[in-house]
Structures
1.
Amino acid sequence: PAPAPAPQPSVPPGTIAPATHAFDIGLIGDTGYSETQDRTLIAMRDRMATRNLAFVIHDGDIHAQNDYCNDERLRYVRGVFDGFASPLVYTPGDNEWYDCPDPGGELGAIRRIFFPTSETLGRTRLVVERQPSPWVENARWVHGGVVFATLNVPGASGRGIDTARAVDWLNAAFDVAQQRGAPAVMVAWQDNPFEGGANDELVDTLKRRAK
């Protein structure tokens, strides 16, 4: 079972606390469209291991569209992600579930293989808060006073998601940030929120809460 989340300190409305310390993170995505790119990802993983990153976020697409929609590929990528020296937080893209012949089945496999616990991937792990089942791929954590959140919003246009649940999780991230007086919020999902055809309700929520 996931541990109970730590109590969140409250601050007067409008208060913004400074970040507690400086830190670096890694941001990657769209990896492994060929055997050559699989090797490139591992080489990048080795370089990242030298950079003392607080964590790495992967924003989806772990294989080419319509290829490798099977558990074998998912387990292979899980092994690669677990080889990262820093904690790795992964949010799915469209290639690995929505664009597969059986989207629901693939998303279920992703949840089972990548998100069985409240821990991140990687050799060093963080404990994150996950949205209640079945949306366990959506995570939230705090580092250096900053609130981070991931959402399974695959490109293009945020297809196939439960919009109401995604909006709830996005709002929850900003609620925590306001309670803590966080200096910033970072949200990672795959779809481009400023491209035509994006999920309007989710993007409107993002803009309103950021403002």
2.
Amino acid sequence: MNASARLPKSVAPQVITYDIDTAGGQSGSPVWHYEAGRRTAVGIHTNGSSLGNSATRLTPALVAILNRWRAMGP
């Protein structure tokens, strides 16, 4: 697994922005918060640009939607 670590540039209610390099095809990858030996997904990488990269933040409302979709099955 390749990983980069850096503090976010900003955290807004719906979006996390960061200066970690990404490449095409990484959209949909998790953005992790790592603390005290525990890794927690906090976002889904969605955008990359020369100005910075961003993720859709995993809010309780979004997690509920994802869980409903998962319950629907394949």
3.
Amino acid sequence: RLEVRNDLMNRSIKIGSNVSLIFEDLITDDSSITEENHLKATLTLKFSDKEVEKEKLDKLLGVENHVWLQVGENDRVFSTLQENLEQSQHSLCFNLTNLMLKDLQSGITLFAGVEHPYYNVRTQEIPRTVSDSLAQDLSK
């Protein structure tokens, strides 16, 4: 049995004005499912102007392959696509190294960003409540 919970306040990161990552909170009571060092998130692209949205989404094709997380001074970890939910939503997975996991759990700053020709944005420092919540997932 796999249960997914979302406490959106502590589980989401906005990257610029149009991109959001909403992290899944995976709780499993099946020890055969090991998602060690993996963070899963839904990437959503939103635009206030529906007329502009189609044009922007066309320009941002492939953006799901350019999303990254960075813990402190570690290298950036780019997401791998799990599945396309729709053109403006993608299920992503970030595979952190053991060092990144240790750093995240010890309170080292987390950053996120998108490195795409039409959307190159890096977050400010991600709030501790979010990184603590994600670190807690990884220590289960």
4.
Amino acid sequence: MRFKLLLLVVILSACSKSKSFDGIEVLGHAATGLENINSPYHDNTKEAVEYALSMEGCDGIEIDVQLSADGELWLFHNTELELETNISGCVSNLNYSDLNETHYTTIGKEKLVRLRDLDTSYFKGKKILLDIRHYNECANQVVDQNVLISHLEEIGFIHPVSFNVSCVLGNPNWIDDFQNAGLSVLYSVYSMY
């Protein structure tokens, strides 16, 4: 029991910044950490986002988003849903009716969440990095960036008032379109294909 209590103290204080690191931004990877065994929630879930953004010293989060077949953005990192959830297939080949009942196979059974369904009041004054999955491995095709940009605009993620959004892109051909839409862009050489 003593070890568990010490571990909890270390986790909770890990997000606090030392005065000597004031210029460093602390962001939660996939909200509370991709494959972080110490996180109480599965990565890229509503619970993980709210937990990470409520921690003192955290400046924001990075979350992975994928476009579904009906044009919604869902938080999910991997390609195949069956590796971590109660259904099979790919986000990019499924619709809201399929994905709305999807949950992780973790103890908490956290649900898959659409980007539009996150409570943006947690985002106030924070940096949000949207790691946009640009390649549909199940269909072996590049996602339509114009649909992504249109959806981000529709749900208020282009020029938001109370938080800062940047898109992490793995497709260099998308950079100009995202910047022309008014989005801050980070280019990542790591990609899904």
